[in-house]
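[step 3/7] inverse_fold.run input=structure_tokens len=147
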């Protein structure tokens, strides 16, 4: 049974199914942010042109169904959960879903992401998961969302 009080943080990576300009990702997030606002979901989406990395956080009973829905979206594939954990507080509470368009080298320089095929294993250590989230939180500047 999921507890509505439990805060979940889930991080996954995926690949766009067709070449996706960042303008299209921005457009997708306009609606996503409205949905997320009503579901009390926060987080950030990193995109380097060939890989998405999304942090989803919020009540467990909202995060898990949203993630199921997102994973079935035909705009991306190879969806792989890197980690999923309960947290005491949110890391991205200012963002109904921030977007950061970064380059490939910046994505690969994030803790645990040098080799995406091994990322899941490496990030199964809570300490490394914390390093990744902190690096995203403090080293990456999401785009400003126009009011
Ligand atoms: C990489 C990626 C990230 C997404 N992130 C979100 C999100 O944070 N919130 C959301 O509601 N939809 C997100 N979506 C869109 C969902 O897959 C889905 O299209 C949307 O939730 C459907 O909303 P609707 O039922 O209101 O039409 C994302 C899609 C992709 C491809």
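[step 3/7] decode complete -> sequence:
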């Amino acid at each position: 049974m999921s507890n509505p009080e439990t805060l979940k943080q889930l991080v996954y990576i995926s690949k766009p199914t067709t070449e996706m300009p960042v303008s299209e990702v921005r457009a997708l997030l306009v609606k996503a942010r409205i949905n997320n606002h009503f579901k009390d979901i926060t987080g950030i989406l990193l995109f380097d042109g060939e890989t998405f990395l999304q942090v989803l956080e919020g009540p467990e009973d909202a995060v898990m169904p949203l993630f199921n829905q997102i994973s079935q979206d035909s705009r991306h594939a190879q969806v792989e959960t890197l980690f999923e954990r309960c947290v005491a507080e949110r890391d991205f509470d200012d963002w109904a879903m921030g977007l950061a368009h970064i380059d490939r080298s910046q994505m690969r320089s994030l803790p645990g992401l040098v080799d995406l095929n091994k990322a899941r294993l490496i990030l199964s250590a809570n300490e490394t998961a914390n390093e990744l989230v902190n690096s995203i939180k403090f080293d990456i500047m999401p785009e400003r969302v126009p009011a």
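[step 4/7] annotate
The chain has a mean pLDDT of 94.
The helical segments are 22-39, 60-71, 104-108, 119-122, 126-139.
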